[in-house]
């Protein structure tokens, strides 16, 4: 199965999920990791990520990337949100991460963050046809999303994140009445016009995601039952309970807050502003409760990746070998005649296997012959005339993952010489090769020229070949019909094969029915 690691670099925390993508385009989470790095501490006032926060984040990211790679996750997608997005030195941070870990962070907009969050929610909660309000309270921003079972309708990103509000309004704990009024006024003055801008004014439900909402739900459940919340997804929290927890946090010291059952100690200063945002949203939207969802941006990134790479993921399942998969991918992008190309590859490999004692080449060269055979006709994409030369350039300058530059040179040259001129030192691409590679190209091209000729009509009339090595190289073609065109063309293409093996080549035809009898 395909593996994907997703790293979410938030204002408050850095998360990583390790997922296995399944054949039905779903996924399975294999592991989760989280570190409350507080990358955004102080960043919203100074518009800079502090050196200390950058140092903490770099250490966490190096650890996570190493962990992912040690577990076999080479495909790593990393996204960063408001803290990095808004910091003047956010680009410097992104550059440092790439330099020290090799991963490229995608810094996403608030709108894209909201889209990904909704994607995660939509695949986790059965939304109705009526619009729902999805809210994600992060450290730096709050995403408001309106959507239903059909999809996303509208999004807004507000600068009401819990760390931002705490640093701006709550200078002491417990806060004064003036601090709370200032906080509540900012939240209300942002939420009211945001809700007004939505075309939909009433919502079937309010769905809350993020660790802030989840921790609030955990505290409320413990208050009522004395037991931990058994499942976060689809748990409900009433407006009355949100108000009660907010009131307790408002009057509590740090020490008293830490004694509240279920409260995450690392959210001791941020849960209060988060509760205020959620309370005011419920009040202003006319909702009495909210439903919790345990899926958000990270799961959205996974679903987005699956959707964007559906064809590639299917190819990975169908063709596990990365080199062969990339060769097939290039052939398909260039619209090569696949049935013909694969049939020629099969014939070429039969010729290769049955002449091993003459050429002495090994498995690596055999693979290169197969790749060249699959790609030999991609030059038609540019022009049928001199398509063999166009194939050379397409292969030479395409990034075929898994092949070295030397191997690409061999494949490109073999494809180039599948017809017309024979390899010559005056040809730049061939002339620059080492003596060893020149011989390899000559042998493989000789075999490909004959194999291609044996499928001249593209009807796979020549089913297979049997080679008898003697003073003459006899190629017996098993045919399913009239193969005169194939055999005539093959005889015209034996020039290089006769040079390479220093013997004459002759063809015979055996009907498929005769061979069976």
Task: Give your account of this protein's structure.
- There is one protein chain.
- This protein is of the alpha/beta class.
- Helix content is 51%, strand content 17%.
- A six-stranded mixed beta sheet has the order 8-7-6-9-11-10, sandwiched between helices. The protein has a five-stranded mixed beta sheet with strand order 3-2-1-4-5, sandwiched between helices. It has a three-stranded mixed beta sheet with strand order 12-13-14.
- Helix 5 (110-122) packs across helix 12.
- The chain is elongated and about 100 Å long.
- The two termini are 44 Å apart.
- The model has no long low-confidence stretch (mean pLDDT 95).
Can I get a quick summary?
This protein has 517 residues and is an alpha/beta fold. It has 24 helices and 14 strands.
Topology diagram in text:
Elements: E1 2-9, E2 14-21, E3 27-35, H1 43-46, H2 51-70, E4 76-80, H3 82-86, H4 90-101, E5 105-107, H5 110-122, E6 132-137, E7 142-148, E8 151-158, H6 162-169, H7 177-197, E9 206-209, H8 210-225, E10 236-238, H9 239-251, H10 254-258, H11 271-285, E11 289-292, H12 297-308, H13 310-318, H14 322-333, H15 338-354, H16 356-359, H17 363-375, H18 387-396, H19 405-416, H20 428-431, H21 435-453, E12 462-469, E13 472-479, H22 484-492, H23 495-501, E14 504-511, H24 512-516
Parallel strand pairs: 1-4, 4-5, 6-9, 9-11, 13-14
Antiparallel strand pairs: 1-2, 2-3, 6-7, 7-8, 10-11, 12-13
């Amino acid at each position: 199965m395909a593996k994907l690691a997703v790293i979410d670099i938030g204002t408050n925390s850095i998360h990583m999920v390790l997922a296995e993508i399944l054949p039905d385009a779903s996924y399975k989470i294999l592991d989760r990791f989280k570190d409350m790095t507080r990358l955004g501490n102080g960043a919203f006032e100074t518009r800079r990520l502090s050196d200390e926060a950058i140092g903490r984040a770099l250490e966490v990211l190096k650890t996570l990337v190493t962990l992912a790679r040690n577990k076999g996750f080479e495909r790593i997608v990393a996204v960063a949100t408001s803290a990095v997005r808004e910091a003047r030195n956010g680009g410097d941070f992104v550059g440092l991460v790439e330099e020290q870990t090799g991963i490229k962070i995608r810094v996403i907009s608030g709108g894209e963050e909201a889209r990904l969050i909704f994607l995660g929610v939509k695949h986790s909660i059965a939304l109705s046809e009526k619009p729902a309000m999805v809210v994600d309270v992060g450290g730096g921003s709050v995403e408001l999303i309106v959507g239903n079972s059909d999809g996303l309708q509208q999004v807004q990103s507000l600068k009401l994140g819990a760390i931002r509000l705490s640093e701006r309004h709550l200078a002491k704990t417990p806060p004064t009445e003036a601090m709370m009024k200032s906080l509540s006024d900012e939240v209300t003055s942002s939420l009211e016009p945001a809700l007004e801008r939505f075309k939909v004014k009433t919502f079937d439900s309010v769905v809350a995601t993020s660790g802030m909402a989840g921790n609030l739900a955990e505290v409320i459940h413990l208050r009522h039952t004395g037991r931990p919340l058994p499942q976060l997804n689809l748990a409900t929290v009433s407006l009355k309970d949100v108000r009660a927890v907010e009131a307790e946090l408002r009057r509590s010291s740090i020490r008293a807050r830490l004694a509240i059952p279920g409260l995450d100690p690392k959210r001791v200063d941020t849960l209060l502003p988060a509760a205020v945002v959620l309370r005011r949203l419920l009040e202003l939207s006319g909702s009495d409760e909210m439903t919790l969802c345990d899926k958000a941006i990270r799961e959205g990134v996974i679903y987005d990746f699956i959707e964007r790479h559906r064809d590639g993921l299917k190819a990975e399942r169908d063709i596990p070998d990365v080199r062969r998969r990339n060769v097939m991918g290039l052939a398909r992008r260039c619209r090569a005649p696949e049935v013909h190309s694969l049939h020629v590859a099969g014939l070429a490999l039969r010729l290769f296997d049955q002449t091993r004692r003459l050429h002495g080449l090994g498995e690596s060269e055999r693979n290169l012959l197969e790749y060249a055979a699959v790609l030999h006709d991609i030059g038609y994409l540019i022009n049928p005339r001199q398509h063999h030369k166009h194939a050379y350039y397409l292969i030479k300058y395409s990034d075929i993952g898994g092949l070295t530059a030397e191997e690409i040179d061999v494949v490109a040259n073999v494809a180039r010489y599948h017809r017309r001129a024979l390899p010559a030192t005056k040809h730049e691409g061939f002339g620059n090769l080492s003596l060893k590679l020149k011989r390899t190209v000559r042998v493989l091209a000789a075999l490909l020229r004959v194999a291609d000729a044996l499928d001249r009509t593209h009807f796979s009339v020549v089913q297979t070949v049997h080679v008898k090595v003697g003073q003459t190289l006899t190629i017996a073609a098993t045919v399913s019909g009239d193969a005169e065109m194939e055999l005539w063309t093959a005889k015209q293409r034996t020039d290089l094969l006769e040079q390479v093996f220093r013997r004459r080549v002759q063809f015979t035809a055996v009907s498929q029915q005769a061979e069976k009898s």
